[in-house]
Amino acid sequence: MMIVRRQNATSKRLQRGGFTLLEIVIALGLMGMLVGMIFRVAQSSMKLSQSVVETQNEMMEQNAFFNLLKNHFEQIPGNAVINLESYEARDRTLFTLTFQNVPMSFNWGDVPMTAEAIELSTVEQRDGFIDVVLRFYDVKILEDSTSTGDDDAEPFAEITLIEDMWMCDCEVVDGSTMEADTFWDNSGQQPLQVKFYCRFTPTSDIVQQTFWVVPKENPEVIMRQIIQQNPAGPDLSNGIDVGGGDTGGGGGGGRGEGGGRGEGGGRGEGGGRGDRGN
């Protein structure tokens, strides 16, 4: 009897030290929930970091776009020709801003190119968003003091500066009237300001950027004034010592006073190899 009781006590202790099937199922369920929560937290962190990177890239692209415009307007010369045209599209207003006589050299396919005129235009896509493109022309397309312009010219290069914008409008401010308008023709004058109104997404706020067109001297006018003041060209006689002896005079040396090859000159009488004078 004592042996049976000891075996029963040992079996009871062994049963109490193990796990039941229900406990194992509950433990596995809790472990699965914990792993799922960790996975969701990690996935949310990855999405957040990816969203931050995309936002930073968009901000960098927007800042680069505005910095490009800022540098361009700061370098506009006094004889630059600016033309702005706006027209209605399907759901919005598009514009074409043309610059001429603005120096711009670059390499296109390892070939050095120089643009005579450039266009900054908005192009509407099928999904309703717009792209801002920059077109380069190797001929003048606007009328100015030296050209009548080629309206049928085709751009030799085109670059998309920024894609999928919801809105991008442009207007200029006339310095004489201080009025803003969406049109500016080639009147020989430059506007005081050029303003851009951009909305990058349908839910974002409108971003306004104003660029000043600093008045500068027209280099063509300066050159005409210089030519009018000096019609015969620059006077170089004051800076050149011609020599003061008479032609063919009594020179005592080979290339001394008397110059040339006349009498007393290089090889005449009194010259290098002639009879020396007294």
From TrEMBL:
Keywords: Membrane, Transmembrane, Transmembrane helix. It comes from the Bacteria. Residues 232-278 are annotated as: Disordered. InterPro entries: N_methyl_site. Residues 258-278 have a biased composition (Basic and acidic residues). The keyword Membrane applies. Residues 241-257 have a biased composition (Gly residues). The chain crosses the membrane at residues 21-42. This is Prepilin-type N-terminal cleavage/methylation domain-containing protein. It comes from Oceaniferula flava. The lineage of its organism: Bacteria, Pseudomonadati, Verrucomicrobiota, Verrucomicrobiia, Verrucomicrobiales.
